[in-house]
């Protein structure tokens, strides 16, 4: 209780800057907070929700959420690398209807597949990434192959130049989001990864959204000094479908606010394997990531990533084997990084994109749509990685 009192007091006594709203004030507080200090005592930890429910003002908001256990067979859950839905824990927050937090429901070892896909496969062309702004398609053709030797030598040579994977900040999948116009369009689409679509469909069905279609994805690649600015995801044309978020690697602090930025947000930890679902009222709420937290063991991986992916997988599994060599590269990357996948349904059934002026259709987002996570050490004029802020 002493830590909680200190944390709440330090937030309450933090002086607001001129014109600073309640959300921005909390964002700044957690951005400047010290890992392991009382500053983080008020942050909800859903991985220990059964013991945290009575420890502070925000923790008292935690409630149990009901899942649709019968909507996903144990076999289909296993195919996606998930435990049976009956074994998942799911939580919500009072005052945030439609928000569901599922602490790591992945089977032991199966996170390896999704980490590898984000780094090795999803970063490849024809998908779009932030590096396209300054490099040719040939130069960004296979970021994994160009980076793996750099990452293997990371422990040996601390002064080596950063690899291209370490410079990666975002990748878009399916309908590619245009950071300039803040829109999706029918004429800039590449096939959505089938394995990620299957995973998303199972999670959505378990949360009561049968028939969810994974049509667009934004992958965020965080370094330890990265932040994600305050924003609302409203560019999708169908807001009746949920926004799904999958986290891997180092932990982060997530802030969930209200419809307006003058409403103080609730802070929570996101650990490796955690899944968040924003639907209904919570689908259009302000949210942000002010801080990525380094491992308490120095440069180490979360415990849930230490278990290897099983050598024998279900015959119809969407999860593929991960070699020791590949995981060595992933490990080197994740020791100082976090990866987040967000998946959205853009269109309702039988809905089409509205017609756009001819000039809009001619724009090429691979050269004009530039935006990235805010890093402390970036010397480039920064633009926050958020579709709608």
UniProtKB/TrEMBL annotation:
Q: Where is the Fe2OG dioxygenase domain?
A: 213-347
Q: State how the cofactor is bound.
A: Binds 1 Fe(2+) ion per subunit.
Q: Which GO terms describe its cellular component?
A: endoplasmic reticulum; euchromatin; mitochondrion; nucleoplasm
Q: Oxidoreductase: is it a keyword of this entry?
A: yes
Which GO MF terms does the UniProt record name?
broad specificity oxidative DNA demethylase activity; chemoattractant activity; class I DNA-(apurinic or apyrimidinic site) endonuclease activity; DNA N6-methyladenine demethylase activity; ferrous iron binding; tRNA binding; tRNA demethylase activity
According to the record's subunit comment, the protein's assembly and interactions are:
Monomer. Interacts with DNAJB6.
Q: What is this protein called?
A: Nucleic acid dioxygenase ALKBH1
- What species was this sequence derived from? Panthera tigris altaica (Siberian tiger)
Q: Which gene encodes it?
A: ALKBH1
């Amino acid at each position: 209780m002493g830590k909680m009192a200190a944390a709440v007091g330090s937030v309450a006594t933090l002086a607001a800057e001129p014109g600073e709203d309640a959300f921005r004030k909390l964002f700044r507080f957690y951005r400047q907070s010290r890992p392991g200090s009382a500053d983080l005592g008020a942050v909800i930890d859903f991985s220990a929700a059964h013991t945290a429910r009575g420890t502070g003002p925000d923790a008292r908001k935690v409630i149990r959420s009901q899942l649709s256990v019968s909507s996903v067979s144990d076999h289909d859950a296993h195919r996606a690398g998930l435990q049976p839905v009956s074994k998942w824990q799911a939580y919500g927050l009072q005052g945030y209807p439609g928000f569901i937090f599922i602490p790591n429901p992945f089977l032991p070892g199966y996170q390896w597949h999704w980490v590898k896909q984000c780094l090795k496969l999803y970063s490849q062309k024809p998908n779009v990434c932030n590096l396209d702004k300054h490099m040719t398609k040939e130069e960004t053709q296979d970021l994994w192959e160009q980076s793996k030797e750099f990452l293997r030598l990371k422990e040996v040579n601390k002064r080596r130049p950063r690899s291209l994977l370490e410079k990666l900040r975002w990748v878009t999948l399916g309908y590619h989001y245009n950071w300039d116009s803040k829109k999706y369009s029918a004429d800039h689409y590449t096939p959505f990864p089938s394995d990620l679509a299957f995973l998303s469909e199972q999670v959505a069905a378990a949360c009561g959204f049968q028939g969810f279609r994974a049509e667009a994805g934004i992958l965020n690649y965080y370094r330890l000094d990265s932040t994600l600015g305050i924003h609302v995801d409203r560019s999708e044309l169908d807001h009746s479908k949920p926004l799904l978020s999958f986290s891997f690697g180092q932990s982060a602090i997530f802030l969930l606010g209200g419809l307006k930025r003058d409403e103080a947000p609730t802070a929570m930890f996101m650990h490796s394997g955690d899944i968040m679902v924003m639907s209904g009222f919570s689908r259009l709420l302000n949210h942000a990531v002010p801080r990525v937290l380094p491992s308490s063991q120095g440069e180490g991986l979360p415990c849930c990533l230490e278990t290897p992916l099983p050598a024998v997988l279900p015959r119809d599994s969407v999860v593929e084997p991960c070699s020791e060599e590949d995981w060595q590269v992933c490990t080197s990357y994740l020791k100082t990084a976090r990866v987040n996948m967000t998946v959205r349904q853009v269109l309702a059934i039988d809905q089409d994109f509205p017609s756009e002026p001819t000039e809009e259709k001619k724009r090429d987002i691979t050269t004009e749509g530039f935006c990235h996570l805010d890093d402390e050490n970036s010397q480039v004029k920064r633009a926050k990685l958020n579709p709608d802020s």
